[in-house]
Amino acid sequence: MELFENITVLSLEQATVLPYLTYRLAQDGMNIIRLEHPVYGDPNRMIGEKVLSEERMNAYYLCINAGKKDLTLNLAEEEGKKIFHALVQDLKVDIFATNQLPRNYQKLGIDYDTLKSLRSDITWLGVTGFGPDSNEAAYDPILQARSGLMELTGEGDGDPQVLGIPLPDMGTSEHAYGLVMKALFKRQATGEGSRIDMAMFESTVSWLTVPITLTDSFGKTITRRGNTHEFFCPVSVYQTSNGYVYLAVGNDRQWKTMVSQDMFKSLAKPEYEKNAGRIGDVANLNAAINAITRNYTSEALIELFTTITVPISKINTVAEVIADPVVEKRLLHARDETSGTRITLAPPPNMTPFLSESQQQLSFPPRFGENNRQIYGEILGYSDDELARLKEQGVI
Question: 339-360: per-residue pLDDT in tens?
Fold first, then answer.
């Protein structure tokens, strides 16, 4: 039996931070049911191209919502709260998660104490921007700015830049993933449930290990430095005759090996033997390396540095990453039974037993309210007439 197949997750989710977490849990084989407001729904459903030529199934939404079911429910209505609490009990929900603002917890009937009274061993997760005592809205770029990530990203003489991926969103998801697994272990060991409050700001700042210690303990100024490294040299992007490579010399032994090669012998200077000397003259040294590397193809340089065991890589496009043999065999897929559309999904951090058994296939991202009839009707016992009434009244 798959380890997690009997774990049910009910998630009042939208945007990225929580949908990415439940997407990760779906990759373990958990039963993921996402809840959305019956009118507004998840705004991310409307982002990106309308690749399926239908409403609320736009490209951006498809990326992190495979492997889930979907219900619509208005928790602001009393009958909606009643249905929600029935779901928690009748579905035997193991994990409830939400990224609603804390002021909405009690108003919507989703607070920990209420759900604990329904399921004493429930794992309750609330993901917020700045903690359970704050109702400040949080978007990923705002968190990048406030946390210092943007101060650390970009060229030294240029503007601060956002990262190429939403690290506050996805990093928080990964931290929450670990806490959820810890809570499940605690329940298995003690029979007790857990309340988890996960703040995106705290999660994001936790990545600033070196910058915080060096700034506050030793008075250093840590800021953006482009493609170079604060402590190692040469580590940067270098131009080739047909593109760019990233070269990372991590110690003096590797440097000695590098300058023993004919093309780099002009750099075998006593002042560069130690990393400190190279760091001290980083601008001139990088210019000298560039003057050499631009005479060779990326492929020739990669072959050379791989032979002498000095880390190097071509700077790949996303299409080239997908075609990488290591990545290609780990990609996930989902196929829409309705339209026949097949989508490719990013590989998991590790290949789970569930994904291996399913041959890396997940169910297609669910349509808006796709599982209303199945779950409300077959599991909670509502008749077709009752479901029609609930829909007409805006409850589902």
Answer: 999 999 999 999 999 999 999 9
- Spatial separation of the C-alpha atoms in residues 177 and 185, rounded to whole Å: 13
Q: For helices 167-190 and 140-147, what crossing angle results, to 10°? A: 90
Domain with 263 in it: 235-316
Q: Kindly provide the residue ranges of all beta strands, DSSP E only, lying in 210-341, ordered along the sequence.
A: 235-240, 243-248, 312-314, 332-335
**Quick one: pLDDT at residue 237?**
98
**Among positive and negative, which fits the CA dihedral 82, 87, 92, 93?**
negative
Q: What is the pLDDT of residues 126-143, one digit of tens each?
A: 999 999 999 998 999 999
Antiparallel, parallel or unpaired: β 31-36 and 68-72: parallel
Element (H, E) at 132: none
Residue 227 lies in a domain: no
According to the model, what pLDDT value does residue 393 have?
Answer: 97
Residue 330, Ramachandran bin (φ over 0: left; ψ between -120 and 50: alpha; else beta): alpha
For the record, the structure tokens of 223 come out as 């800021």
Give dist(CA 195, CA 180) in Å, integer. Answer: 10
Does the predicted model carry a pTM greater than 0.90?
A: yes
pLDDT reported for residue 2: 76
Please say if the pLDDT value at position 1 is more than 70.
Answer: no
Give me the active site residues, please. 169
Q: Note whether 370 and 298 are same-domain residues.
A: no
Asked if 309 and 384 sit in the same domain, the reply is: no
Residue 382 Cα distances to 68, 89, 372, 373, 376, angstroms = 22, 15, 10, 9, 6
Task: Residue 193: name the closest of 273, 118, 298, 284 by CA.
Answer: 118
Distance CA 304, CA 302 (A): 5
Domain check: are 88 and 110 in the same one?
yes
Query: Residues 272, 124: one domain?
Result: no
Instruction: Give the tens place of pLDDT for each residue, 46-101.
Output: 999 999 999 999 999 999 999 999 999 999 999 999 999 999 999 999 999 999 99
